[in-house]
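Quick note —
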Amino acid sequence: MAKAWYPVIDYMACVECGTCTGKCSHGVYDPAKAPTPVVANPLGCVDHCHGCGNLCPQGAITYVGDDTGWTPPNGSAKPGESCCCNH
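Predicted structure written out below.
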């Protein structure tokens, strides 16, 4: 799990659809706040996983520590291509 990698939510762009909170199986988001994405456990995020960011229909998720050149696709990810860490 990552120490300097976790999602950052742009709440001005977020529509609270719950896609990211439902996608993450690593306990990063607070389930009690869903569908609002509240990062409660940033250390649970998997280093260089863009799973929730790839699925966000608004492109409202970026990542602290991202040095990959990845940019939010605004929901254009295809099924099965959303993440490197489908655990």
